[in-house]
Amino acid sequence: MTRTPLLLALGLLPILATSACNAADPAASGAQATAPAASTAADQRPFSATEVSRFDQPWAMTFLPDGSLLVTEKRGTLQHLDLASGQKHEITGVPKVAYGGQGGFGDVILHPQFARNHVIYVSYAEEGTLDTRGAAVARATLALDASGAGQLKDLKVIWRQSPKVSGEGHYGHRLAFGPDGKLWISSSERQKFDPAQDMGSNLGKIIRLNDDGTLPADNPFASQGGVAAQVWSLGHRNILGMAFDANGKLWAHEMGPAGGDELNLIVRGANYGYPIVSNGDHYDGRPIPDHDTRPEFAAPKVTWTPVISPAGFVIYSGSLFPQWKGSGFIGGLSSTSLVRVAFDGDSAREAERFNMGERIREVEQGPDGALWLLEDGSKARLLKLTPKT
User: Fold this and answer.
1) Nearest of 220, 208, 198, 332 to residue 275 by alpha carbon
2) What's the whole-number mean pLDDT along residues 246-273?
3) Whether 121 contacts 138, CB under 8 Å
């Protein structure tokens, strides 16, 4: 794989304007490199799914140390849910979001020292000038009162996609803290293709920052300065899930175009090839060369055609489902499924697929080891998965 940026020459690919995907980002069916696991029907699943609450277009969730839950809703609200009482309170002081298409309120995560500093991070789409938009990440202090209501204080934007562009798709803006204490951000290519290979842009990249938004000196392209200094890896399409395994390896999935959803092992400085290579094709049927035609690009560890439309991602570390410890769980949008991935060192494979009957937007692990799912759309259910007795 290359460790230097490869600029996509003008004219290398035909005009790509017709291949933008819709808000759900489903892709067409096609040949599949590896067969998916057979989907398990509801009565054969090893877990029970219990509805706990409902939300309006939820996008992400994270547990607080007291066991309560923060949930973002795409239209621009942050909800605090007391699981013991079932009461919800809207948190005030959130940033204004650019709602529409795939844009709106995005991820929410806690600072590694949240119990001490009460700092959280949120991502969202924000308006630019001349009908442009881009993802942003802000940090703030979460102040809750005794009732469970609260506000965000001292909110400060610490990162933005550059440049802001037209359209309402492929923001990415998933967040994670790594074992190194750094903040990791997925910055999708905004359906603009070429920026994923352009180091003058931070679109189509995975970003690594210090917790205050400053730049780590050991980033692979730090010497280039500018937005390139933020970049850990490049050549990505639309990353909607990132998770670190027990060995500190970062895994990320991304939606392919017409076919070719990917699960990638993220390596320092690596180029994952989009839009030069992909295991899918353009939506109008024009082919894209597969990864195996260009070995200098890092190839995915798992690809899906037909697609699963992956969203949300957790690598399970609990004890409630001991048979699944170390497995990854991915929500499926168009596939209306929960997909279990098994890892073996640097390799991965789909191990099981559970038919959930609804689009799954987010997956999280609870404090007691239960798996939690958020469905997609209005009146979306929050589901708690526990082992069948």
Assistant:
1) 198
2) 98
3) yes
Q: How high is the pLDDT of residue 40?
A: 77
170 is catalytic: yes
pLDDT at 5: 35
Supply the mean pLDDT for the chain.
91
- pLDDT score of 27 more than 70: no
Rounded mean pLDDT of 245-267?
98
Q: Model confidence at 35, in pLDDT bands (50, 70, 90)? A: low
Catalytic residue among 80, 111, 170, 253: 170
Comparing CA positions, the residue from 7, 17, 320 lying closest to residue 167 is 17
Q: With 0-12 CB in 10 A as exposed, 13-18 as middle and 19+ as buried, what is 149?
A: middle
Alpha helices in 8-62 (DSSP H): none
Tell which residue, 197, 200, 191, has the closest CA to residue 165. Answer: 191
d(CA 142, CA 211): 16
The three-state secondary structure class of 356 is: coil
How many of the other CB atoms lie within 10 Å of CB of 56? 13
- 58 strand-pairing partners: 73
DSSP string covering 89-131: EEEE-PPP---BTTBSEEEEEE-TTHHHH-EEEEEEEEE-SSS
